[in-house]
Amino acid sequence: MSVAASNVKRCRVRGSTFPDVEEALVLWLKKARTKNLPVSGPLLLEKARFFATQLHHDDFVCSNGWLSRFRARYNIATRVISGKGAAADTDGAEEWQNGQLQQILTDYAPEDIFNLDESALFFRLLPNRTLVSKGQACTGGKHAKDRISVAFIVNMTGSEKPPLLVIGKSEKPRCFKGGRLPSGVLYRSNTKAWMTAKIFEEYVRLLDRRFAAKKRNVIVVLDNASAHVQVENLSAIKLVFLAPITTALAQPLDQGIIRAVKQTYRKNLLRRMLLSMENNKSYAVELLSGIRLLAYSWQQVEPST
């Protein structure tokens, strides 16, 4: 969420106990919206606390109730910039999970059961909700076309996260020169930044060698996407492909983990942009910095997610 404050009154608003805090906050919000930076409710509260401290208001109580009153005083509403949804066969997924899948998983400990899934990430794209003055059009910032594909893999307990696989369009991105990928990330490329059967097989064989070196036998559950081919002669990994109708509901990664990673990534990206704004600096999101932020955000996602 973010506030577009171009039409917000700068004078003291009736009913405000701390008008100086609110005026400072509104000016900050106006600056953020000038740069098309969305600001979430929690971030708004955090900034309000900061201004209250700077202005020596020790009795300032920054709560969700205060935020609601602040938004009402300044005629601020929430707008959705964009969004999409998906559906799946709930009955089919439940039948699969309670029947065939459970039977397959019986011989494996929870820490040896992994889920692998891919998702696209627009690594320059900010959060898709914004707080705006009522009646104001919600145009958002410049929508980035920079898309990468990311393969996530995590075990059932959330205690183990093998290397992420990032797939970009450039084989040798210029921003990689002089910089290193973070540990726990692999990078591959093709012209469309998509997972291919060749990249998938290479990735699975790499994971297989790692598990075999630790003398482990694991199972990897994944959907039946065209790039997910059966890989022969694996030493440590058993691949289990889900039926098409159950994919979205039978995979933990599809049920909220990947969404949590993306939300965390965009919050981290926004915080860095806002910090740069406050210091009158620009923050350019290159592929390498985006991958580093992704790796950091992935580690922030708790096992309980």
From TrEMBL:
<dbReference type="GO" id="GO:0003677">
    <property type="term" value="F:DNA binding"/>
</dbReference>
<dbReference type="InterPro" id="IPR004875">
    <property type="entry name" value="DDE_SF_endonuclease_dom"/>
</dbReference>
<dbReference type="Pfam" id="PF03184">
    <property type="entry name" value="DDE_1"/>
</dbReference>
<feature type="domain" description="HTH CENPB-type">
    <location>
        <begin position="9"/>
        <end position="80"/>
    </location>
</feature>
<dbReference type="InterPro" id="IPR009057">
    <property type="entry name" value="Homeodomain-like_sf"/>
</dbReference>
<dbReference type="GO" id="GO:0005634">
    <property type="term" value="C:nucleus"/>
</dbReference>
<dbReference type="Pfam" id="PF03221">
    <property type="entry name" value="HTH_Tnp_Tc5"/>
</dbReference>
<protein>
    <submittedName>
        <fullName>Transposase, putative</fullName>
    </submittedName>
</protein>
<dbReference type="InterPro" id="IPR050863">
    <property type="entry name" value="CenT-Element_Derived"/>
</dbReference>
<dbReference type="InterPro" id="IPR006600">
    <property type="entry name" value="HTH_CenpB_DNA-bd_dom"/>
</dbReference>
<keyword id="KW-0238">DNA-binding</keyword>
